Amino acid sequence: MPDFEPAAPNPHPSNSRADMVTGSITTDFVVQFWGVRGQISAPGKETIRYGGNTSCVEMRVGKKRLIFDCGSGFRVLGNNLLGQMPVEAHIFFTDCHWDSIQGFPFFTPAFIPGNCFHLYGAEASNGATMEQRLGSQMLHPNFPVPLQVMRSELKFYDLTSCHKILLDDVTVEAVFLNYSYRSMGYRVSWQGRSVVYATARLPYLNHLDKNLLHLAYDADLLILDAPHTLDDQDILESSPLIWKDELWQTGIATAKAAQVKRIVISRFNPDYNDDILDHMEKQVQSVFPNNLLAREGMILSVLPQARDY
Q1: Do the beta carbons of residue 254 and residue 216 sit within 8 Å?
Q2: How many other CB atoms are there within 10 angstroms of residue 158's CB atom?
């Protein structure tokens, strides 16, 4: 069996400028989105094109499989992996908010012997480890079976800011982006290419995010959280350069200073339907033509890109 089987094709056709890969993987560094919502899942007929699952991003880098966050999209990824076992993967948590961990108890491969999962995250502000927090959400009466019922091999690693993880020829750097919540951002580097996952940050009014600036410098791809506080009228009528969302403005200004080549926007407000997100992408691309919004099932190949800035 090859290291990575072809991923499932995107069930939601996209009009984005993404480098789509369907049928077979044609590069050694690909990013696939399995969940693109923040806060809570948003299923229904109004979210079909972009998807309603909470955050989960898979990266297949060389011979390594990396997963970022275990929202409800993590369950769907797990079902996709059942035909590729035995599976080994490295799982990185932004934080322990529900939209980052709620899919973990429903990840079927974790219950099957022979699979191996390495799990990384920072300690919470109260000192609880990621293993303790994942275990707590599976305790009675919240869940019918405890973490110990998972029969795969689970290896837990506690991270600190500026921690570098070496996975053969793949490097993952972790940096705090919101210390109050112990929220991590990650940079994945391999053979001169890099992707940054940074979706739980702090706004800095009229200032750059220094930690994001360090993490994202000259990155080929930056996965950034979407604006959450805009009303429909703002999205439809105003330029992204003046959207009244401090987190968005901090992120886009920092990405520009970091000379990021391309941005993919994810973790959408669950109240934003497909039509609103279509308008958001149109507005973003009117200013930054190379950038796009994530969609469930979308696969991007990490290739050298020209900058929009």
Answers
A1: yes
A2: 12
Mean pLDDT over 240-264 rounds to: 92
* Tokens encoding 275: 């039509």
Q: Where are the domains of the chain?
A: 29-301
- Radius of gyration of the chain from Cα atoms? 18
pLDDT tens digits for 280-297?
A: 999 999 999 999 999 999
Q: What tens digit of pLDDT does each residue of 9-23 get?
A: 333 333 333 333 333
Q: Taking the CA atoms of 294, 66, 194 and 162 in sequence, report the sign of the dihedral they define.
A: positive
Q: Scanning the structure block, which residue is given the tokens 């994942």?
A: 134
Tokens of 39: 């806060």
- Residue 39: count other Cβ atoms within 10 Å of its Cβ: 17
DSSP code at position 108:
G
In degrees, rounded to 5, the angle at the alpha carbon of residue 98 between the alpha carbons of residues 67 and 215 is: 45
- pTM (whole model) above 0.85: yes
Confidence of residue 267 (pLDDT cuts 50, 70, 90): very high
Which tokens in the block code for residue 283?
A: 């507005």
Here the tokens at position 146 are 């405890």
* 8 token code pair: 């499932």
Whether 190 has a pLDDT exceeding 80, the answer reads yes
Give me the CATH topology for the region 29-301.
Metallo-beta-lactamase; Chain A (3.60.15)
Supply 297's token pair: 């099932």
